[in-house]
Amino acid sequence: MASTSIGARALLELLGEWRDTGPSYEALAERIRLLVIDGRLLSGARLPAERNLAVQLGVSRTTVTAAYQRLREQGFAVSRQGSGTTTSLPASGTSPAPVGSGLLDFTKAALPAPSMMQDAVRLASEQVAPLLLDSGYDTVGLPVLREAIARRYTERGLATDPDEVLVTVGAQQAIALIARALVSRGDRVLIEVPTYPHAYDAIGAAGARIVTTSVSVESRHGWDMETYESVLRRTSPSIAYVMPDFQNPTGRSMTASVRRRLLEAAAAQGTIVIADETPAELDIDRRQTFPPLAAAPGSHVITIGSASKTMWGGLRVGWVRAERATIRRLHAVRATMDLGTPVLDQLVVAALFEDYDTVLAERRAALAAGRAAIERIVPDAFPDWSVPHVNGGLAAWVNIGAPVSSQLALAARSEGLLIAAGPRFGIDGAFERFLRMPLTASESQVERAVAALARAWPAAARHPLSEPGMLAAVV
Ligand SMILES: Cc1ncc(COP(=O)(O)O)c(C=O)c1O
Predict the structure, then answer these.
(1) Hey, what domains does the chain have and what are their CATH numbers?
(2) Which atom of ligand 1 is nearest to the CA of 196?
């Protein structure tokens, strides 16, 4: 039995503009395959009945039958008598890269560990002795780490007490925890699109009704505040999930005026702002520095932070910074998810905080090199693509000039490159004209990736999608 099922309407939304100039059944099968590969459609999800999907899509039932048949042949679907057709991931399609596959993975915008890591691990192992006498279940965070996090916020202009910090298993758990604790089924939640997709997934899993506003690489300020304010006014979301600094994937940062207007509009509706500041300290050469969003007087902001991008993703340490009552509430909900953050990893993060400025300087240098590689190599191979100049963060949101991101991502896979298609960062199939290029890759990796994209491009570009609805829909 399938553990989840997707209705014809919901699939229609996920498919977005799926048609291309080739046969419809092939285009449909390709698009469903991509949804499975990049995780937008879970493996094991029951697909809609052929007749229902045909009606929703306005195609003949034969088209859907042939598309499902194609998916079965490729191993991306299985059918069983009485339980319909369910999606499946063949061993070769397992996402991310199967062990030993040699695929270059550009789906992760994350740096390898910094050079100080070995020393931090050594120090942590020396410091762990007294903690071994305890049970090791730490659902709040080690005092030494909460103190270090609080100190850092205070230095950056947000006075923080260690009691206002809850250490989590990465920022991802922080997002899921906040969604579970603060969102009731059917509540509206505002997110920016494009956005970090697993935030969207976690908020959606809490039963939220998602409303969106857009962040653009092409507009002057990135955030269209008129629309933002109007969406907030019309929908009164219970929370708004935002990334004020080096937004993933666009790399944009909110200006002072955007920050002020966002906080004012949210306060007027009683909307709690969730500021995901995971990328906030990845400043390469931004001219202005900003304190954490929560530092604005009178604001109601819950801040999410993480060691994953500034230190290392393998540590799995993140945190929430909020007022004590919220921390208590999140802590109470946490036990339904896990029983604490690993103690040794926390000690490693605390050790890295001891010389955090040096760690950050190394990260910034690596990101600057990654940015230089992207800005040189991509336009050489693709003069028509537009590579925005970002001044920090994890990625560049590249406009590839034609709505073929999904086809390109699929074709690139056969050329040895895993890369997430633009629509993975949006909803309703938007962002087919964009590709996220991580700044975290080395020059030689960027060269390999761009060579793979160049080989994949001719086939992808032969089947552009139809035009309408490509850019972010604002609800
Ligand atoms: C904006 C943003 N938030 C949260 C996360 C998840 O971070 P973590 O690895 O700490 O769970 C990521 C990871 O890419 C991210 O980019």
Answers:
(1) 4-93 (1.10.10.10), 104-114+359-461 (3.90.1150.10), 117-354 (3.40.640.10)
(2) 1
